[in-house]
Amino acid sequence: MEFNLKKILKALLLSNSEPLSIRDIQAVITRYHEQAEAEPPEPEAEEPSGEGDGQGVIEPILQQVPSLLTATQIRDAMDAIAHELEDQREVYRLLQGPAGYRIATSPEYADWVRLMRNEAKPMKLSQAAMETLSIIAYRQPVTRAEMEAIRGVSVDSAVSKLLELELILVTGRADLPGRPIQYGTTDKFLEFIGVRSIEELPASDVLSPTQITEWFRRSTQEDEPLTDKDVGLPEEDKETPTEEKNEENA
After folding, report:
1. pLDDT digits (tens, 9 = 90+) for 138-159
2. Which one is predicted more confidently, 197 or 168?
3. Which of 6, 13, 190, 223 has its CA 20 to 30 A from that of 240?
């Protein structure tokens, strides 16, 4: 049998319902060598060289299988599989989450699987829940008061819904008067948006920690409305009355 890393990875992915980590794959390779070296040679094995060492078949196979696969080799093979599945428009996709790699049904065929299982349509997050989830993702750990300082409204309903969906969790208590509860995102959130870690979230000028900290300070110390510039939006060009009058006279 010829050693083909991509085919082996596909077989492992399809046979496992849980995410497959790089360490899991490396452990399989290690186990393969341990068992191959421990097994006695098969009596009926052919010996091309004519020598009676009983290793005529197994040695070439062992030589093909590396004793240790690096994380880079595995990632490159997984990336190649993911691109192939997309290019060939297969019915499943390869996804990478915080716990490892897994095979999932392609979005365009998800409704057929749902109908087979007689499941209800997935519930979409409301705008309020999405905004609250974004604040938690970029600001975590964050308290309800901090979330409400940004949104300007109560977040009780949104936080309850996100907790129910296991997209966020309680991470501790802030070192502030009253010891308010702090919230953060879960691994399920990372899988939900398709990234491996929080560091992979797209950069956001509007939700950068420095700007949000400044908003908190203003919301508690000053009664001053935020401008477009404060939230990272381009300022509109506004002509002064004098400029408008000069243009009219011209």
Report:
1. 888 999 999 998 888 889 999 9
2. 168
3. 223
Please state whether beta strands 142-143 and 181-185 pair in parallel, antiparallel, or not at all (unpaired).
antiparallel
DSSP count for the chain of H helices, then E strands: 11, 5
Strand ranges (DSSP E) for 63-114?
92-97, 100-105
- In angstroms, how far is CA 81 from the centroid of its own chain? 18
Is residue 90 a contact partner of residue 83, using CB atoms and an 8 Å limit? no
Q: Which amino acid is at 176?
A: L
- What is the largest distance, in Å, between two alpha-carbon atoms of the chain? 108
SS3 content of the chain, % helix, strand, coil (to 5): 50, 10, 40
Higher pLDDT, 66 or 207: 66
Task: Return the residue matching tokens 């900290």.
Answer: 213
Q: What angle do CA 177, 183, 189 make, to 5 degrees?
A: 175
Residues β-bridged to residue 105: 92
Cα separations in angstroms, 96 against 24, 32, 101? 14, 25, 4
Instruction: Check: CB of residue 47 under 8 Å from CB of residue 53.
Output: yes
Cα 120 to its chain centre, rounded Å, is 24
Q: What is the pTM of this model?
A: 0.55
Tokens at residue 142, please?
């964050």
Contact 96, 78 (CB under 8 A): yes
Nearest to 23 by CA among 95, 100, 103: 100
Phi and psi at residue 203, in whole multiples of 5°?
A: -65, 145
Give the Cα-Cα-Cα angle 50, 53, 56 (nearest 5 degrees): 60
Give the pLDDT confidence of 76-123 residue by residue, as tens digits: 999 999 999 989 989 989 988 888 898 988 888 888 988 998 887 777
